[in-house]
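Recall that a protein's primary structure is simply its ordered list of amino acids. Everything else, from secondary elements to tertiary packing, is in principle encoded there. The following example makes that idea concrete.
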Amino acid sequence: MKVTSRSTIVALAGLLFAGCQQAGDGGNAGSEAPVSRAAPEAVEAQTSAGKPSAPISIDYAIIGTPVVGQPVSINLEVSSSLRNRAVTLNYRINDARNLTFPEAQAQRVALAAFGDNDRVSQQVTVVPQREGRLYLNVYAEVDTEEGTLLKSVAIPIQVGRAPRQPEASGEPRQSPDGETVISLPAEETPR
């Protein structure tokens, strides 16, 4: 039985190899074995390391010392290589128990096209609600012929002397192989 199985495998491998050579050389016997080439689309996809990022740069400076319950301003310097395109800034806070916006603070700001300016300045104000390391998320988007491109920055704000403590996103649990993992709750996606 083993001899038959090996013979069958060798015969099938030979047939597959012969079929591949005939398909590769266009049926012309005696020509060299073809070189494997990827389709142009496949080569392009391999060299791309993800979605293109917006050609926007965001620098920031925190003004003063952040104190719990007191507004703190953050100066933003935005630049873009697409000077003829408007840039929209979106400000987001993950948890209102940590950081809030004053009532007068807009959470979405449209910046006009840059024109001859290298940089555009913008200021955002937040109110820390506790000590520790807090984050303001800034998303910049620009519309292009290829679609909307997005750049995001998480601005760390150190409030007080409390050490930064990572926020727990889930519950620690034991995996079947004995490793401790964090179980994250599932979120429903709005329809």
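The longest helix spans residues 2-24. Residues 22 and 28 are 7 Å apart (CA to CA).
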